[in-house]
Amino acid sequence: MHNGPTHIGTPVDLAEGIRRIGFRRWYERQLIESHLYLVSCFLSLVMVLACLEGFSLRAPAWEVLLRLAAMVGGAALGMGALARYKAMLDAAEYAAERSVCGRCAAYGILELTAAPAPAAPDDADPPIAPLGVRCRRCGHEWTIE
Protein backbone atom coordinates (compact mmCIF):
# COMPACT_ATOMS: atom_id res chain seq x y z
CA MET A 1 0.00 0.00 0.00
CA HIS A 2 2.89 2.37 0.68
CA ASN A 3 6.54 2.48 -0.25
CA GLY A 4 7.80 3.77 3.10
CA PRO A 5 9.17 1.85 6.04
CA THR A 6 7.32 -1.24 7.16
CA HIS A 7 7.21 -0.32 10.86
CA ILE A 8 3.75 1.01 11.60
CA GLY A 9 3.55 4.14 13.62
CA THR A 10 6.84 5.54 12.44
CA PRO A 11 6.89 9.31 12.07
CA VAL A 12 7.44 8.90 8.34
CA ASP A 13 4.13 7.03 8.02
CA LEU A 14 2.24 9.66 10.01
CA ALA A 15 3.98 12.60 8.32
CA GLU A 16 3.47 11.13 4.86
CA GLY A 17 -0.15 10.35 5.67
CA ILE A 18 -0.88 13.87 6.91
CA ARG A 19 0.88 15.37 3.90
CA ARG A 20 -0.80 13.16 1.29
CA ILE A 21 -4.34 12.50 2.54
CA GLY A 22 -4.79 14.39 5.81
CA PHE A 23 -4.85 13.12 9.37
CA ARG A 24 -8.46 11.93 9.48
CA ARG A 25 -8.18 9.79 6.35
CA TRP A 26 -4.80 8.44 7.54
CA TYR A 27 -6.37 7.49 10.86
CA GLU A 28 -9.34 5.83 9.15
CA ARG A 29 -7.05 3.80 6.90
CA GLN A 30 -4.90 2.74 9.86
CA LEU A 31 -8.01 1.45 11.65
CA ILE A 32 -9.25 -0.42 8.59
CA GLU A 33 -5.85 -1.99 7.90
CA SER A 34 -5.32 -2.95 11.54
CA HIS A 35 -8.72 -4.64 11.70
CA LEU A 36 -7.87 -6.60 8.56
CA TYR A 37 -4.93 -7.99 10.53
CA LEU A 38 -7.36 -8.95 13.31
CA VAL A 39 -9.55 -10.79 10.77
CA SER A 40 -6.41 -12.54 9.47
CA CYS A 41 -5.59 -13.62 13.01
CA PHE A 42 -9.10 -15.02 13.47
CA LEU A 43 -8.97 -16.91 10.15
CA SER A 44 -5.58 -18.35 11.12
CA LEU A 45 -7.09 -19.59 14.37
CA VAL A 46 -9.94 -21.23 12.44
CA MET A 47 -7.39 -22.94 10.16
CA VAL A 48 -5.41 -24.23 13.15
CA LEU A 49 -8.56 -25.58 14.78
CA ALA A 50 -9.74 -27.22 11.54
CA CYS A 51 -6.36 -28.95 11.14
CA LEU A 52 -6.43 -30.01 14.78
CA GLU A 53 -9.91 -31.48 14.43
CA GLY A 54 -8.86 -33.79 11.60
CA PHE A 55 -5.50 -34.65 13.14
CA SER A 56 -4.81 -38.35 13.64
CA LEU A 57 -1.56 -40.20 14.13
CA ARG A 58 -3.10 -43.14 12.26
CA ALA A 59 -3.21 -41.10 9.05
CA PRO A 60 -0.40 -41.40 6.48
CA ALA A 61 2.84 -39.70 7.51
CA TRP A 62 2.59 -37.05 4.78
CA GLU A 63 -0.85 -36.02 6.02
CA VAL A 64 0.32 -35.79 9.64
CA LEU A 65 3.30 -33.66 8.59
CA LEU A 66 1.13 -31.48 6.37
CA ARG A 67 -1.38 -30.86 9.17
CA LEU A 68 1.40 -30.13 11.67
CA ALA A 69 3.03 -27.69 9.25
CA ALA A 70 -0.33 -25.98 8.64
CA MET A 71 -0.98 -25.71 12.38
CA VAL A 72 2.48 -24.29 13.14
CA GLY A 73 2.30 -21.92 10.16
CA GLY A 74 -1.23 -20.83 11.06
CA ALA A 75 -0.26 -20.22 14.68
CA ALA A 76 2.79 -18.17 13.63
CA LEU A 77 0.73 -16.20 11.11
CA GLY A 78 -1.97 -15.57 13.72
CA MET A 79 0.49 -14.37 16.35
CA GLY A 80 2.21 -12.09 13.82
CA ALA A 81 -1.12 -10.68 12.64
CA LEU A 82 -2.22 -10.07 16.22
CA ALA A 83 1.03 -8.27 17.04
CA ARG A 84 0.70 -6.13 13.91
CA TYR A 85 -2.94 -5.34 14.78
CA LYS A 86 -1.98 -4.21 18.25
CA ALA A 87 0.97 -2.10 17.04
CA MET A 88 -1.07 -0.36 14.34
CA LEU A 89 -4.02 0.27 16.63
CA ASP A 90 -1.79 1.59 19.41
CA ALA A 91 0.01 3.98 17.03
CA ALA A 92 -3.24 5.25 15.51
CA GLU A 93 -4.86 5.80 18.91
CA TYR A 94 -1.72 7.42 20.27
CA ALA A 95 -1.66 9.91 17.39
CA ALA A 96 -5.43 10.49 17.59
CA GLU A 97 -5.25 11.39 21.27
CA ARG A 98 -2.68 14.07 20.45
CA SER A 99 -4.41 15.52 17.38
CA VAL A 100 -6.78 17.93 19.09
CA CYS A 101 -5.92 21.61 18.86
CA GLY A 102 -5.28 23.09 22.30
CA ARG A 103 -6.66 26.47 21.27
CA CYS A 104 -9.85 25.80 19.27
CA ALA A 105 -10.38 22.08 20.08
CA ALA A 106 -10.56 21.12 16.38
CA TYR A 107 -9.83 17.43 15.85
CA GLY A 108 -7.54 16.17 13.12
CA ILE A 109 -7.41 19.34 10.99
CA LEU A 110 -3.62 19.34 10.82
CA GLU A 111 -0.79 20.29 8.54
CA LEU A 112 2.89 19.54 9.05
CA THR A 113 5.23 22.24 10.30
CA ALA A 114 8.36 20.15 10.86
CA ALA A 115 9.82 16.93 9.58
CA PRO A 116 9.85 13.98 11.99
CA ALA A 117 12.65 14.13 14.52
CA PRO A 118 14.84 11.04 14.76
CA ALA A 119 14.30 9.17 18.00
CA ALA A 120 17.20 8.89 20.41
CA PRO A 121 18.41 5.30 20.90
CA ASP A 122 17.81 5.39 24.66
CA ASP A 123 14.15 6.51 24.41
CA ALA A 124 11.34 4.27 25.64
CA ASP A 125 10.26 3.67 22.00
CA PRO A 126 6.89 5.48 21.86
CA PRO A 127 4.47 4.41 19.11
CA ILE A 128 5.35 7.54 17.12
CA ALA A 129 8.20 10.04 17.25
CA PRO A 130 7.66 13.79 17.78
CA LEU A 131 6.08 15.55 14.81
CA GLY A 132 5.40 19.28 14.53
CA VAL A 133 1.86 20.15 13.37
CA ARG A 134 -0.32 23.24 12.98
CA CYS A 135 -4.11 23.57 13.20
CA ARG A 136 -5.57 24.57 9.85
CA ARG A 137 -8.45 26.31 11.56
CA CYS A 138 -6.68 28.68 13.99
CA GLY A 139 -2.94 28.29 13.22
CA HIS A 140 -2.00 26.99 16.68
CA GLU A 141 1.20 24.88 16.58
CA TRP A 142 2.12 21.94 18.78
CA THR A 143 4.08 18.73 18.70
CA ILE A 144 2.52 15.29 18.52
CA GLU A 145 4.83 13.28 20.76
What does this structure look like?
The protein is mainly alpha-helical and 145 residues long. The chain is built from 3 helices and 3 strands; from the N terminus they run H-H-H-E-E-E. The chain has helices spanning 11-21, 23-53, 61-97, and strands at 110-112, 131-135, 141-144. A 3-stranded antiparallel sheet has the order 1-2-3, with helices on one face. Strand 2 (131-135) and strand 3 form a beta hairpin. The radius of gyration is 21 Å and the shape is rod-shaped. The two termini are 25 Å apart. The model is unreliable at 1-8 (pLDDT under 50).
Would you summarize the structure shown here?
The chain is mainly alpha-helical.
Topology:
Blueprint: H1 11-21, H2 23-53, H3 61-97, E1 110-112, E2 131-135, E3 141-144
Antiparallel strand pairs: 1-2, 2-3
Order of helices and strands: HHHEEE
Which structural class do the helices and strands define? Answer: mainly alpha
State the shape.
rod-shaped
Distance between the amino and carboxyl termini: 25 Å
- Poorly predicted parts: 1-8
What is the number of helical segments per DSSP (H or I, 4+ residues)?
3
- Strand percentage, roughly? 5-15%
The number of strands is 3
Biggest sheet: strands, sense, closure? 3 strands, antiparallel
What percent of residues adopt helix (DSSP H or I)? 40-55%
Rg, please? Answer: 21 Å
Instruction: Write out the strand line-up for the largest beta sheet, numbering strands in chain order.
Output: 1-2-3
**Mean of residue pLDDT values:** 85
